[in-house]
Amino acid sequence: MIDQEGLPTGEHKARLMQHLETLIAFIGDSALDDDLQARLNMEFGPQTLAFQEMKNLLRIGIAEKWACYKIIDGPDYCRGRLGVVSDGVHDFVIESAKLKDVKGNFHTHPLGEINMIQPVDADAQFCGAGEGWKVFAPGTSHYPTVSGGLAPSSSFCRKGRSSTMTNIDQVLDRPAKRVLAFSGSVRRESWNSLLLNIAADALRSHGVSVRGISLRDYALPIYDGDLEESRGVPQSVLELRGLIREHDGLLVACPEYNGSVTPLLKNALDWCSRPCDGLGGLEPFQLKPVLIVGTSIGPFGALRAISHLRAIMSKMGAAVVPEDLALPNAQAAFRSGALADPDMEEVVKALTWRLAEQLPGPRKDRS
């Protein structure tokens, strides 16, 4: 099952999220420091019923595959987003992780990170700490490391500045390469939007910053030259063109309608190819690396639509990655918000790496 955020869910997830809402209200505006760590271990520590219930619910979530559902590096290193929790003022991104005698991927904590450590094995430790709470202050970084056995955990990061897996650009404090991701379908339970999210997460694992948007938020009339002449280019076009221009590459999920590109996607591209904002019509697309993925319920996996979109974007001047992903039989290709076939996960990682390799180096003009 998939929830409204496009994340896997199950019978017991809502109960855990209720506990997390209480925690976020407790944390509030607190500085992420040793004092908060001490207060968390006092009020919500292993000696409390709340801690033990959350610990049990996370283990149930692993079994129900809405927690720790993505394999990062074999069965001993898995992660999975639980969702965004808010008390009406503060938004936190909540991640789950399951590590067993593993040194994880290096990452930074721009605004800090809070970890709830829930060992299965009595001697298991997360970054030198046993069962309980560990807080990393803003500006710190580390390799999440578990020794002594298996230790699932939950991490809390303020939304918009959550911990990010880094590549060498980030380690050297250079701006991360940035990709804009969008789907040609805005249907609530779109297979292609799910595939887009999976590919976006794979890109992030390569150290790329990915911004996902919905074309629903950039509503446009069907392109009409007379309308453009009488009313000008809609504001949504200026905003969308600006996003395309300021990102280093594009990740596009391409559904197939009657053997071709969806009207939503084609219309957005047609409007965004119009000259405005002081730039030529196709200037935002020139040599822009683009990776196309798509899926359908049929045996060809949106292959025909993908080939049409490749031709369109190549004509617009984009540098489309030679490989693409046409995933057939969408109704059986996913399980609990992830790809059902582990081999296909490796294909996605390889394809997104190809896009990451083609992205230009960090630009000096970025703020």
Number of helices: 11
The CATH architecture of the largest domain: 3-Layer(aba) Sandwich
- What do we call the CATH topology of the largest domain? Rossmann fold
**What Rg, in angstroms, do the CA atoms define?**
22 Å
What is the CATH C level class of the largest domain, in words? Alpha Beta
Anisotropy-based shape:
elongated
Quaternary structure annotation: single chain
Helicity level: 25-40%
What is the SS-derived class? alpha/beta
CATH superfamily of the largest domain: Flavodoxin domain
N-to-C order of helices and strands: HHHEEEEEEEEEEHEHEHHEHEHEEHEEH
Task: Summarize the main sheet.
Answer: 7 strands, antiparallel
Low-confidence stretches: 160-174, 363-367
Q: Got a strand count?
A: 18
Whole-number count of domains: 2
**Termini separation (Å)?**
40 Å
Average pLDDT confidence is: 88
Strand content: 15-25%
Explain the overall architecture.
Helices cover 34% and strands 25% of the residues. It is α/β, with parallel strands linked by helices and 367 residues long. The strands form four sheets. Strands 1, 2, 3, 5, 6, 7 and 9 form a seven-stranded antiparallel β-sheet that branches. Helix 1 (13-27) packs across helix 3 (49-64) and helix 5 packs across helix 11 (342-358). The two termini are 40 Å apart.
Short overview:
The protein has 367 residues and is α/β, with parallel strands linked by helices.
Element layout with pairings:
Blueprint: H1 13-27, H2 34-43, H3 49-64, E1 70-71, E2 77-86, E3 91-103, E4 107-109, E5 113-117, E6 125-126, E7 132-136, E8 140-142, E9 145-158, E10 164-165, H4 168-171, E11 178-183, H5 191-205, E12 209-212, H6 225-231, H7 235-246, E13 249-253, H8 263-272, E14 289-295, H9 303-315, E15 319-320, E16 325-327, H10 330-333, E17 334-335, E18 338-339, H11 342-358
Helix pairs in contact: 1-3, 5-11
